[in-house]
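ugh ok fine here u go
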Amino acid sequence: MELQLEATEKTPKVLFNKKSGELSMEGICIPELTHDFFKPIIHFVQKVEASEVKTFTLSVNLHFFNTGSARYILELMKTVQQLKEKGVAIKYKWHYSEDDEDIEEAGRSYSFILNEPFEMIPFS
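structure:
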């Protein structure tokens, strides 16, 4: 069970660490074909089983994302939520620059929409 996508000028690096159970996204997310970018990531999460990971963490460290990506980020998070039904504990980490109120607020909004606590991680 592996997932690794290298960053491009328009898409973030995506990596799943099987040992820690952490799926991380880092970089800029403005893909031209948003659905095509997120589809394999969402499909990957749908295939996660409790026998493979006891805890699944989604760690998001996006410096910028467009509105199309915002919708798919929420869809990805809702897919992560479904892991609870399989007996997997879930965690969310939201990284944001201390100077970027928009990214910070986006994380707080996702946390509110999902009714899940997010670990909010500021960096300078």
